[in-house]
Design a protein that fits this description.
It is built from five helices and no strands. The chain is mainly α.
Length: 141
């Protein structure tokens, strides 16, 4: 009987060694699979969070571009000389000069008489300068 017990004992030992999926192996594989699933889930979360941030930035960019376009349109409207002239005549009471307009100048000093004898083109240049100043004040407001 001892021989049978020994044979049975040897068979049990051989069967244990031949088993591929022991409890330790199964637990190790389960641990590795759990870690892999956790990493994939974490990466998916990060990708989704980044996509949301990109969407928010794109919508903010569109809003800023629309505001920029609006401001450019307003700036172009203020730079239009016809619009400037219209506002200057209506709001500030500017009157268009005519060919029969005269300005009386009191000449009491020689330096004043020299300056009063300026040519018409020099006076137009001064008028344009005044108009340019009005325009620059208008645009800055």
């Amino acid at each position: 009987m001892t021989r049978r017990n020994n044979n049975a004992q040897i068979r049990k030992n051989v069967n244990k060694e031949e088993k591929i999926f022991t409890i330790d192996t199964v637990l190790f594989l389960f641990l590795v699979a759990s870690i892999c699933v956790s990493l994939i889930t974490w990466q998916s979360y990060r990708i989704n969070r980044t996509d949301i941030a990109i969407s928010n930035l794109e919508s903010e960019l569109k809003e800023v571009q629309m505001l920029n376009d609006s401001l450019e349109g307003k700036l172009l409207a203020k730079r239009d000389l016809k619009e400037v002239q219209k506002i200057a005549t209506k709001k500030y009471g500017m009157i268009k000069p005519s060919s029969s307009s005269f300005v009386a100048v009191d000449v009491t000093d020689k330096t004043d008489s020299i300056s009063s004898t300026k040519s018409a083109s020099a006076q137009n240049t001064e008028d344009e300068s005044a108009f340019s100043k009005l325009f620059s004040n208008f645009v800055s407001n």
